[in-house]
Design a protein that fits this description.
single chain; 280 residues; alpha/beta; Rossmann fold; Pantoate--beta-alanine Ligase, Chain: A,domain 2; 2 domains; six-stranded parallel β-sheet; three-stranded antiparallel β-sheet; 11 helices; binds pantoate
Length: 280
């Protein structure tokens, strides 16, 4: 595996592979890699001739300075994991390399960005669109891989791809969970041992709510999930919305196969998760 830190070298190296007709898989990450990321890389490895993983904690998508400062950075361990799964290039630039000038672009992300994480984290999705569009322009991958834990983020990225006319296949990959059901996240390392024991209740309560459908209304199920999670020590639901899987808009009926998207503070750690309301 090659570690590349400059855009120029990245473009040269990937350009060379493309000129040989090879397909390129890109997995954008912010590092602190866990098995969720590795499942994306494994899939990219299976589906492409050449795999690039970017590791970059993108400052423009953080609207909270403490969150940016405390975001885990584990470059050495990340490189070992990427090497072990057969990645071709780990692209690990510094901030100046990606943003030699401030990025002032404002994307019209439309309705998919105007709910949930949109209003809760102003500027966050614009920052995601900035970095992902830069990575797409630099690598021009055949396919790019994103985890469904960030369900709304995928919708935002698809919208950005549409407005920027990128010819790239966006591949959604299922959430990876620990054995106890907690969705894998780089932020989980910040949970105390007690919080780590409590956090799987987010998934177990959402899962239990599947059995309330279709006899209970969407509004009843939504309130039940919020109340049950808020009863757990150290947990505070920021929002729980049951939304259309494509538009991200809250729904009132079950007919479209909606997705429940949640954000919960567990102590001061912000965890997100989601569940598909399809009879299982
Ligand atoms: O999901 C993430 O880790 C980030 O938002 C992404 C897509 C790598 C952009 O920085």
């Amino acid at each position: 595996m090659e570690i590349i830190r400059t855009v120029e070298q990245l473009k040269d190296r990937v350009g060379c592979e493309k000129s040989l007709g090879r397909s390129i898989g890109l997995v954008p990450t912010m590092g602190a890699l866990h098995d969720g990321h590795i499942s994306l890389v494994d899939r990219a490895r299976r589906e492409n001739d050449f795999v690039v993983v970017s590791v970059f904690v993108n400052p423009t998508q953080f609207n909270n300075a403490i969150d940016l400062a405390t975001y885990p950075r584990t470059e050495e361990a990340d490189c070992e994991k990427l090497e072990a799964v057969g990645v071709d290039i780990a692209f690990i630039p510094d901030v100046k390399e990606i943003y030699p000038e401030p990025d002032t672009r404002v994307f019209d992300l439309g309705e998919v960005a105007n709910v949930m994480e949109g209003p809760m984290r102003p500027g966050h999705f614009n920052g995601v669109a900035q970095i992902v569009s830069k990575l797409f322009s630099m690598v021009q991958p055949t396919r790019a891989y994103f985890g469904e834990k960030d369900f709304q983020q995928i919708a935002v990225i698809k919208r950005m791809v549409e407005i920027e006319n990128f010819d790239i296949d966006i591949v959604d990959c299922p959430i990876k969970r620990a054995d106890d059901g907690l969705a894998l996240s780089s932020r989980n390392v910040r949970l105390t041992p007690t919080q780590r024991e409590l956090a799987p209740s987010i998934h177990s309560i959402m899962k239990e709510s599947l059995s309330m459908m279709p006899d209970h209304t969407v509004a009843e199920v939504k309130q039940w999930v919020i109340d049950e999670i808020n009863k757990v020590d150290e947990m505070k639901v920021e929002y729980y919305e049951i939304v259309h899987p494509l538009t991200m808009q809250p729904v009132e009926t079950w007919s479209c196969g909606p997705v429940g998207c949640i954000t919960v503070y567990c102590g001061d750690v912000r965890l997100i998760d989601n569940i598909k309301y399809i009879k299982q």
